[in-house]
From TrEMBL:
Chain segments annotated as transmembrane: 39-57, 85-105, 125-149, 169-191
Region of interest (Disordered), ranges: 1-27
UniProt keyword annotation of Nucleus present: no
Protein name: (wild Malaysian banana) hypothetical protein
Keywords in alphabetical order: Membrane, Transmembrane, Transmembrane helix
Length: 193
């Protein structure tokens, strides 16, 4: 009789669901959140590498192949070079913010998972963090696009006077904002469902 009670108690303990963390209401939602955060961190890492490559390039030093790319009247001034560095730094700060928020959220989700001790994650706070991380990525992309516009002006001439510079910038300023708009719309759609 005592053994039956002990077996029932063991069976009840084994089949009891783990304590609720306040996070995983839908079962698969946490894995989707982790996947989204991983995607944000991976994209930010690639774009941050592009920023470092851009910062390593000295716009003032002309290589042998750079001479004659733009007419002397179209040469970009020192302000364009300063803006180039500023936009790279702003983009780096935005991507770093986005990545740090995403990594903190991932850590919080892992702590609140089935093996977590006592951590609890608020669903609304998690969503707000993902949106903040996405906004940081969008701002980083915007600043990186502006830095690339300045690279084009340094290499091909200012936008107002050089046809090749304008031809290079038009696809840049149409495709990147379009992609950012699509990304923002999908993030907004995901969080309203």
């Amino acid at each position: 009789m005592e053994e039956e009670e002990e077996e029932d108690e063991i069976h009840e303990h084994a089949t009891r669901s783990p304590p609720s963390t306040g996070l995983d209401a839908g079962g698969g939602e946490t894995s989707i959140d982790i996947t989204a955060l991983d995607g944000i961190v991976n994209v930010n890492a690639i774009l941050t590498l592009a920023i470092f490559v851009g910062l390593a390039w000295n716009p003032s030093s002309s290589g042998a192949g750079d001479e004659g790319l733009s007419p002397p009247i179209c040469v970009a001034g020192a302000q364009v070079e300063k803006d180039l560095v500023s936009f790279h730094v702003f983009a780096f700060a935005s991507f770093l913010f986005s990545s740090l928020v995403a990594l903190c959220l991932k850590q919080a989700v892992h702590l609140a998972g089935p093996h977590g001790r006592s951590a609890r994650v608020n669903r609304a706070l998690l969503r707000a963090g993902i949106v903040a991380s996405a906004v940081g990525s969008v701002f980083g992309c915007g600043f990186l696009m502006l830095a690339l516009v300045n690279v084009v002006q340094i290499k091909l001439g200012t936008l107002g006077c050089s046809g090749p510079a304008l031809g290079a910038v038009v696809p840049l300023v149409t495709l990147i904002p379009a992609a950012m708009l699509i990304y923002s719309a999908i993030v907004f759609y995901a969080f309203t469902r």
